[in-house]
Amino acid sequence: MRKSKSVKRRSVGQYKNLKCQNSDLDTSKYAKFAPIDGPCTEVVNVPEEVERVLCFKCTSRSASGK
Ligand SMILES: [Zn+2]
């Protein structure tokens, strides 16, 4: 996907707020790390090119293996 052109686009990328991918458990690859009581509601500020993000809460759950 990524082309190795050395042409710089914008020097500073745009950021956006993206919901944790565990807000939609049907499409999340990490649904098993979602909160026990339902879909995750965390929002994470990420670079615009990021399409999926896992919030720190779900990340820490995945890291702890619980
Ligand atoms: Zn989350």
List the helices and strands and how they pair.
Elements: E1 15-19, E2 43-47, H1 56-64
Antiparallel strand pairs: 1-2
The structure holds zinc ion (ZN).
Envelope shape: elongated
Structural class: alpha+beta
pLDDT averaged over residues? 88
State the helix count. Answer: 1
Which consecutive residue ranges, at least 5 long each, have pLDDT under 50? none
Rg: 15 Å
Strand fraction band?
15-25%
The domain count comes to 1
Main beta sheet: 2 strands, antiparallel
- Give the topology string: H per helix, E per strand: EEH
Helix-residue proportion: 10-25%
The molecules bound to the chains, other than polymers, are: zinc ion
Number of E-state strands? 2
Describe the strand arrangement of the main beta sheet, using strand numbers: 1-2
Distance between the termini: 34 Å
Q: Describe it for me?
A:
This protein has 66 residues and is of the alpha+beta class. It has one domain. Helix content is 14%, strand content 15%. It is built from 1 helix and 2 strands. It has one helix at residues 56-64, and strands at residues 15-19, 43-47. Strands 1-2 form a two-stranded antiparallel ribbon. The chain is elongated, with a radius of gyration of 15 Å. The protein binds zinc ion. The site of zinc ion (ZN) has 8 residues, from helix 1.
Supply database-style keywords.
66 residues; alpha+beta; 1 helix; 2 strands; 15% strand; binds zinc ion
Write a brief caption for the model:
With 66 residues, this protein is of the alpha+beta class.
